[in-house]
Design a protein that fits this description.
Number of domains of chain A: 2
CATH class of the largest domain in chain A: Mainly Beta
Oligomer: heterodimer
Largest sheet of chain A: 5 strands, mixed, barrel
Structural class of chain A: alpha+beta
Shape of chain A: elongated
Number of strands of chain A: 7
Keywords (chain B): Cell inner membrane, Cell membrane, Cytochrome c-type biogenesis, Membrane, Transmembrane, Transmembrane helix
Largest sheet of chain B: 6 strands, antiparallel
CATH superfamily of the largest domain in chain A: Nucleic acid-binding proteins
Shape of chain B: globular
Number of strands of chain B: 11
CATH topology of the largest domain in chain A: OB fold (Dihydrolipoamide Acetyltransferase, E2P)
Strand content of chain A: 25-35%
Helix content of chain A: 25-40%
Transmembrane segments (chain B): 6-26, 47-64, 96-114, 121-142, 177-197, 209-229, 249-265, 277-305, 311-330, 351-374, 394-413, 425-442, 448-468, 489-512, 616-636
Largest interface: A-B, 39 and 49 residues
Strand content of chain B: 5-15%
Order of helices and strands of chain A: HEHEEEEEEH
Membrane topology (chain B): Multi-pass membrane protein
Structural class of chain B: alpha+beta
Radius of gyration of chain B: 27 Å
Helix content of chain B: 55-70%
Distance between the termini of chain A: 79 Å
Number of helices of chain B: 20
Protein name (chain B): Cytochrome c-type biogenesis protein
Number of helices of chain A: 3
GO biological process, one term (chain B): cytochrome complex assembly
Distance between the termini of chain B: 56 Å
Strand order of the largest sheet of chain A: 2-4-5-7-6
């Protein structure tokens, strides 16, 4: 083989490898994006059914209740306009409290959000940006309506 | 008074860093040894003042001087002394000071250990490091002054975030920073070489030990951070693909590529422009990591403060560094052509493939980390990219890397016979697949992922052993001792690090496939079963600490009717901020950890308890340890010192010749 055709093969192989890798990355990316929806969007039916997504807002006061098994928790997430009931099986984060911000990830099943993951804040002053965003959106919408 | 002294010392350090940034570069340009000679004392003086400044800040924490804003927000009079000291970097301002101090320490190390370098080259290296240092010290002084006063002073502080009050946090940040910042040395060497237009094997040889040591620190820092997350966050995971973890993982991937590319440049003179780009890239990713962590754009334990000014400053710094480096690179690219030629089947080719794949892997992490930020910034909606994406990408990208990693060292430089080499390792390859599939079946978890992981691990281990046997067999007839001695430290380093990857893969695969977890509700005297272990709840007692109140659960661990001891997870409430914390309890073993944490207490007095069984998880950290030790071996190779002595002699000879 001549030096030139060797080099061509090397470059060609490298580029093919690169393309294959990029295609892999992009397709994995497409399939695994998790979208975020506010409780208002969910109640308007804008959220996908049967697909994992996130909702965020405040944990509604007085909504946390344990089922008889002690492991399953029911609570509600609100953006001050709409309320979405959530169930979750497992240990809640230390800073999960009523009236505080939280983000949950899971699927919507028959009007109830089945969470597989519950994220709360890391310190007292911190509000998850998604939760803050949801409340802000709802309040903006409320203002527009009252005008 | 003392905080003000610290503040002034930091300003003096900034002045010295500017001197270090300008004078040696001018000296190198004019070929004036007087001006070039300024670099070394300027760097050492700068280190003295930063250290002084750092000690002053620590003093404010130890003395609980709550007229200093930073101490008031991150310390408390009842905080244990150890956490008063580490609290200095458990916040934005202090961690920046630590960043600047690490950089200064690296610079001083360069001035001490690089006496053999030509004066002009060393002057340029110090000049580049001076600019980086000036950028960071001015960032600290302008946007994040750690010595800011709080008047009137508060009676007591708000205490350090309880998550950070842990022994792992004592060493994790300094190690990680030494790694991040260490890549600035590789960067400075690359820029100095571009400035002087001399990118040759000598440059690669000078740069290699520095890059390797920085990589060792980064590896250790990431491993300790991962261990901390595992036992401190209370839910048993060891890696979350959290943006902050990604921020440290990206430079690690590119730094790994850089180490291997430097090897080719040193041995064969090839890949020179690629090596330079990797050096620029690894350092840029370190800066990007600092930006991600410190600007508050992402949500994590590490995001201390949200101040857009700070984010903007680092972003500007990042743009300047990347822009300037690439411009310089473009101007000098014509000098980078050529280098040793190599055949289609050669060690160079295998290292090239490894480099391409590691770079793509790094880019895929970058995409997953930054894309949500971009969408959010453009107002196009909020999304998150979680572990499923990274796992989907990493398994197929890393599989060929690992296969090549074990095969590549069999290939000769320049040119080799593929068929002969493949035939040589074929038995090991077939055996590894058999072992992988067989052991996946034996542990009753025959999925393709488990079988693949275990096969890869077996392949790394078997191929490494074969490589060692072949290396020892090279000098037939020699005594075993002399054969062992003929192997260089850097070869052992490579071998150990690669072997460590094999151990690491075993840990990741086993814990990923076989870990068990259950949440149960337990009252005193009740028991639960998991993975052949029995957990008996013996009640909870009060166990208050110096700055927290706690309830401690007593859970007896029983296996085959024999007690293995008491696990004592705690639920703490730190008093200063009323912040609750879960403190897990572990029974650590070579082949498995048993991990227990307390959830909340229910109204009827029962507790929610999380039980975890984590097979082979220690192997993850054992693998990282081997990689780190391998790096130390590689950097300690005698060759660097021997050739350094030769370079020094040549430099002296050159000078004498010029004088005559």
């Amino acid at each position: 083989m001549k030096a030139r055709s060797k080099r061509l093969m090397l470059v060609g192989g490298g580029v093919a490898l690169l393309f294959a890798a990029v295609a892999l990355v992009l397709s994995a990316f497409q399939q695994n994006l998790v979208f975020f929806h506010t409780p208002t969007e969910v109640s308007e039916g804008k959220a996908p059914t049967g697909k994992t997504f996130r909702i965020g807002g405040m944990v509604e006061d007085g909504s946390i209740a344990r089922e008889a098994d002690g492991i399953t928790v029911r609570f509600a997430i609100t953006d001050t306009a709409k309320v979405i009931p959530v169930t979750y099986k497992g240990t809640l984060p230390d800073l999960f409290k009523e009236g505080k911000g939280a983000v949950v990830q899971g699927k919507l099943e028959g009007g109830v959000f089945r969470a597989t993951e519950v994220l709360a804040k890391h310190d007292e002053n911190y509000m998850p940006p998604e939760a803050a965003h949801a409340v802000e959106q709802a309040q903006k919408a409320a203002q527009t309506v009252s005008q | 008074m003392i905080p003000e002294l610290g503040h002034f010392a930091l300003i003096l350090a900034l002045v010295l860093s500017l001197v270090q940034a300008v004078v040696p570069l001018v000296g190198a340009h004019r070929n004036s040894s007087a001006l070039m000679g300024v670099g070394r004392p300027a760097a050492q003086g700068q280190f003295f003042f930063i250290l002084f400044s750092y000690v002053c800040l620590t003093w404010a924490f130890i003395q609980s001087d709550f007229s200093v804003q930073l101490a008031a927000s991150n310390s408390h009079s009842a905080t244990p002394l150890m956490y008063k000291i580490t609290g200095v970097w458990g916040n934005h301002e202090g961690s920046l000071l630590l960043w600047a101090m690490s950089l200064s320490l690296w610079t001083v190390a360069v001035t001490v250990f690089s006496r053999h370098l030509p004066d002009a080259f060393l002057a340029r290296v110090l000049g580049v490091l001076g600019w980086v240092s000036a950028g960071f010290i001015s960032f600290t002084l302008v946007t994040s002054n750690p010595f800011e006063r709080l008047l009137p002073a508060v009676a007591d502080g708000r205490d350090l975030n309880p998550l950070l009050q842990d022994p792992g946090m004592i060493i994790h940040p300094p190690l990680l920073y030494m790694g991040y910042v260490g890549f600035s040395v590789a960067f400075a060497f690359a820029i100095a070489a571009l400035l002087s237009g001399r990118l040759d094997a000598a440059w690669a040889r000078w740069s290699r030990p520095w890059t390797t040591i920085a990589w060792v620190f980064l590896t250790a820092g990431i491993a300790v951070g991962s261990g901390w997350a595992y036992y401190e966050l209370g839910w048993g995971g060891w890696w979350f693909w959290d943006p902050v973890e990604n921020a440290s993982f990206m430079p690690w991937l590119l730094g790994t590529a850089l180490m291997h590319s430097l090897a080719v440049t040193e041995k064969r003179g090839a890949f020179r422009s690629w090596t330079v780009l990797l050096a620029i890239g690894a350092f840029s990713l370190s800066l990007l990591g600092t930006f991600l962590v410190r600007s508050g754009v992402i949500t994590s334990v590490h995001a201390f403060a949200t101040d857009p000014k700070r984010g903007l400053y680092i972003l500007a710094l990042l743009v300047i560094v990347i822009g300037f480096s690439l411009l310089l690179y473009a101007m000098r690219a014509n000098k980078l052509m050529g280098g040793g030629s190599f055949g289609l089947v050669s060690r160079e080719t295998s290292l090239l493939a490894n480099n391409v794949l590691l770079t793509v892997a790094s880019a895929s992490v970058l995409l997953g980390t930054l894309y949500p930020l971009f969408l959010d910034a453009l107002g196009l909606g909020k999304i998150s990219v979680g572990p499923p994406y990274f796992e989907a990408v990493f398994v197929p990208l890393m599989t060929p890397v690992v296969v090549l990693m074990a095969f590549g060292p069999f290939l000769r430089w320049k040119d080799d016979d593929l068929l002969a080499e493949v035939r040589r390792v074929a038995p090991a390859f077939v055996a590894s697949v058999a072992i992988g599939v067989g052991s996946a079946w034996a542990v009753d978890h025959l999925t393709w992922r488990t079988a693949l992981g275990l096969s890869l691990a077996a392949w790394v281990v078997l191929a490494s052993l074969q490589l060692l046997a072949r290396r020892l067999g090279e000098r037939a007839g020699a005594s075993a001792g002399s054969r062992l001695r003929s192997i260089t430290a850097s070869w052992w380093g490579m071998w150990l690090a690669h072997f460590g990857i094999g151990i690491f893969i075993i840990g990741v695969t086993m814990v990923g496939s076989l870990d068990r977890h259950v949440d149960v509700k337990m009252k005193e005297g009740q028991h639960a079963e998991l993975a052949g272990y029995t957990f008996v709840f013996r009640g909870a007692v009060d166990a208050d600490g110096p700055n927290y109140d706690a309830a401690r659960g007593n859970i007896e661990l029983i296996r085959d009717g024999r007690s293995l001891g008491m696990l004592t997870p705690e639920k703490r409430v730190y008093l200063a901020q009323g912040m609750p914390m879960t403190e897990a309890s572990l029974d650590i073993g070579v082949f498995r950890d048993v991990y227990v944490s307390l959830g909340e207490q229910l109204e009827d007095g029962a507790w929610i308890v999380s039980l975890y069984y984590k097979p082979f998880i220690s192997w993850i950290w054992m693998g990282c340890l081997l990689m780190g030790v391998g790096g130390v071996f590689a950097a300690a190779d005698r060759r660097y010192r021997r050739l350094a002595a030769r370079d020094a002699a040549a430099a002296v000879g050159g000078r004498a010749g010029a004088a005559a």
